[in-house]
Amino acid sequence: MLSSAEDHQDIIERVAALDIGKAEVMCCVRVPDENHPGKRLQEITPYSTMTRSLMLLADRLVELGVSRVVMEATADYWKPVFYLLEAAGLEVWLVNARDVKHLPGRPKTDKLDAVWLAKVTERQMLRPSFVPPEPIRQLRDLTRYRVDLVRSRTAEKNRVEKLLEDACIKLSVVVSDLFGVSGRDMMNQLISGQRDAAVLARLARTGMRKKIPVLQEALTGRFTEHHAFLLSTMLRRIDGINADIAEVETQIEAVVVPFAAAVRQLDEVVGIGVTAAAILISEIGVDMSRFPTAGHLTSWAKFAPGVSESAGRRKGRGATGHGNRYLASVLGEIVVAIGRTDTFLGERYRRIARRRGTNRAIVAVGRSVLVVVWHLLSEPEARFQDLGSDFYQRSRGIERQKASHIRQLQALGYRVTLEPVA
Question: Does the predicted TM-score (pTM) go above 0.85?
Answer without folding.
Answer: no
